[in-house]
Amino acid sequence: MNNLKTLLMLVFLTAGTVNLYAHALWIETSSSGKKGQPHEVKVFYGEYAAKELEETGKWYSDVKDFALWLTVPGKEKVKLNTTAGTNFYSASFTPEQDGVYLLTVSHEAKDLGGTTKYEFSSVAVVAVGRSNAIDHLSIPNSINVAANEAKNYKVNSPVQLKAVLNGRPVANKPVSVSSPEGWSKEFITDAHGGISFIPLWPGTYVLELSSFEKTNGEHNGQKFTAVWQGATSSIGVTR
Q1: pTM for the complete prediction?
Q2: Sequence-distant contacts of 70-74: CB under 8 A, at least 24 apart
Q3: 3-state DSSP helix/strand/coil percent for the chain, to nearest 5?
Q4: In which band, very low, low, confident or very high, does the pLDDT at 20 lie, cut at 50, 70 and 90?
Q5: Which domains does the chain have, with CATH numbers?
Q6: Number of C-beta neighbours around residue 43 at 10 A
Q7: Which of 160, 119, 156, 162 is nearest to 141 (CA)?
Q8: Which of 105, 123, 153, 175 lies most in the core, judged by the most C-beta atoms within 10 Å?
């Protein structure tokens, strides 16, 4: 069994592993919750695959001033209070009904990187009650990537994802999947914005989608010539 697992790992890695060390912001939380019980959430910034979690005082520009929003089933979204830790911000909420809860961040950095404007987005989906399909078009972020179901996934079972940009599934776009083992593999979305992968180890996987567009404009009194948007989500995998 160990030899088989090693072979699967080698096949997975040699099929197209890439080292993607661009900083990103991502939300980590359990994909399932229970009514009446506090649900913990953490927001990180850094390079997940490299296991580099930036200390909150060193986050780029004003990224630490992000707003974390909770969309409750059938209700308007509300802003959650966050508390700074050493290398993350934490928050919590208590579900009061069954359904799919969305946690979202979308933050344009105050400062440009050269002449590029940077926007950091993330989404996490929590199912309360039974597992639920995710309506990707209901996610308020203009760019997002997320699993097709809100649930805890299992090792060696396929995970289906979808990437969306400006309200439409985005085809032929690279999406990176970073594993808890410290590597990233790049997948290309199909005509419906979908990809599929099989997790080989338990732990948290971070998904990342980005968009880069040459365009001119002004942001906080600074002229830019390009816009970069980065979107993440995370899923939990168990044995």
Answers
A1: 0.89
A2: 70/101, 70/102, 70/103, 71/101, 71/102, 71/103, 71/104, 71/140, 72/96, 72/97, 72/99, 72/101, 73/97, 73/98, 73/99, 73/100, 73/101, 74/99
A3: 10, 55, 35
A4: very low
A5: 2-238 (2.60.40.1930)
A6: 25
A7: 119
A8: 123
